[in-house]
Amino acid sequence: MEPDAIVVGTGPNGLAAAVTLGRAGLKVALYEARTTIGGGLRTEPLFDAEIEHDICSAVHPMAVVSPFFRQFDLASRGVNMLYPSVSYAHPLQNGLAGLAYRDLEATCAHLGPDGERWRRLMQPLVNHSQELVDFVLSGQRGLPRSLAVPALLGSRLLAHGTALAPHRFSTEVARSLLTGVAAHAVGRLPSLASGAVAMLLGHLAHASGWPIPEGGSARIAEALADDITAHGGTFHTDHHVTSLDELPRAKLVLLDTSPKTFTEIAGDRLPAGYRRSLARFRYGPAAAKVDFVVSEPIPWANPDVGQAATVHLGGTQAEMFEAETKAAAGIRPEEPFVLLVDPASADPSRAKPGRRPVWAYAHVPNGDAVDPTAMVTACIERYAPGFADTVIHRRGISGAEYQAYNPNYVGGDIGAGAMTLWQSVMRPVPRFDPYRTPLTGVYMCSASTPPGPSVHGMSGYLAALSALRREFGIRTPPHLGPREDPPGR
């Protein structure tokens, strides 16, 4: 039987789209180039059958707050989210460290003279957290329900996303603590886009937290896949789609792919004007990753850093500004920003006696082909002397190699497109419905569409809702929670 809908790519957005379509009663077929599903949600043993590594994403603040996942309810499906008491840490030289506790008051107390400034920055955002998340993840194609949240956000972007940023705090600990979050935008610092990321992720550190799934990120993909198959969906793995023409006939095709890949598989079916618009889509700096197995917990110079599963290694605010701006300009920084994840600090089940996984990635220019192993190891050593002596296994993946792992990461850009303010909203092309393409029944649903990167599922969900309205006349969003039985199954 021919499917009603096809989804190409099984990253979090492709899976979210398939869940939504299946819940609407459509028969969905999913195609995945690799032998396992998940995209950025894969967890695999790399060196040791008992030690599993998250291949891309590991920490999921958005997976517990996005409208899609709030409805889907991961907890009811057996996905146990674990919350470290310190959402993220930022070590500096001489044993200093910024600590973003989940408890906002504890964070303010830790920041001393900047504590009150941090409270004034974060408390209003925490108070309006769900409204803020819903606004940022809405796709930005309609008026907000209230102007309070855009006003809160706008004033903070001007203060922390512009040249004013160095003057907002009096201590380097507070400045670097916030700037490390802004660096998640993977682009020039400071910028309005990075300021928005700092406000969104920064306040979540004190609200819903920065959790990791017990057992690894693949648990999220498995929960989504279970729902898809329960509603009649089928998976076709190890199937690299090279042309739309090779797919079975279906009324609807959703592509969890980059604009570059879409252009390749659509071929000459794309109108010239739309093709030119896709060609103008910009990609950001690359992630160059190193996976480690270590023999003991990381020997941080400041032991409190070990309370965090997420650690930002970038030095001072000025050093991060310089390194991120160089990488965005295509210049390889000597000491790049490095984001480290130590999952066993929050999930002890990830460690075995004398062995535990750690991974870290550096921000480097798009397409950078240099093995990052020595550079990343040296960076960790600066803040954790003796770390190298604990390493049992290590594996480096350059930015260029990341594209080979996942074609959506063009040139190693794990954000699936540069996070400028314009491109954060008008991605992949400036259209009122960014998911719909000029090809009949063909939609894009990847992180290259609004609201952009992170594991929130909203690009897939919003694309599926658009397709259901236009192609099937279904205007009421389907129920996504676990209580409803599969329709007609």
Descriptive report:
With 489 residues, the protein is of the alpha/beta class. The protein is built from 17 helices and 16 strands. It has a 7-stranded mixed beta sheet with strand order 7-6-12-13-14-11-15, with helices on both faces. Helix 1 runs parallel beside helix 9 (218-230) and helix 6 crosses helix 8. It is globular. Mean pLDDT is 94; it is low at 485-489.
In short:
This protein has 17 helices and 16 strands.
Number of strands: 16
Through-space gap between termini:
15 Å
Overall, the morphology is globular
Assign a percent range to the helix content.
25-40%
Rg result: 22 Å
Q: Determine the mean pLDDT.
A: 94
**Biggest sheet descriptor:** 7 strands, mixed
Strand arrangement across the biggest beta sheet: 7-6-12-13-14-11-15
Structural class: alpha/beta
How many helical stretches? 17
The residue ranges in which pLDDT falls below 50 over 5 or more consecutive positions are: 485-489
Q: What fraction strand?
A: 15-25%
Topology:
Elements (H helix, E strand, L loop, with lengths): L4 E4 L3 H12 L4 E4 L11 E6 L2 E4 L12 H6 L8 E2 L3 E6 L5 E5 L2 H7 L4 H13 L1 H8 L11 H13 L11 H11 L9 H13 L7 E2 L4 H13 L3 E3 L15 E4 L3 H8 L5 H8 L6 E9 L13 E6 L3 H12 L9 E4 L14 E9 L8 H11 L3 H4 E7 L1 H7 L15 H5 L16 E3 L13 H15 L17
Parallel strand pairs: 1-2, 1-10, 2-9, 6-12, 10-16
Antiparallel strand pairs: 3-4, 5-8, 6-7, 11-14, 11-15, 12-13, 13-14
Helix pairs in contact: 1-9, 1-17, 3-4, 4-8, 6-8, 7-8
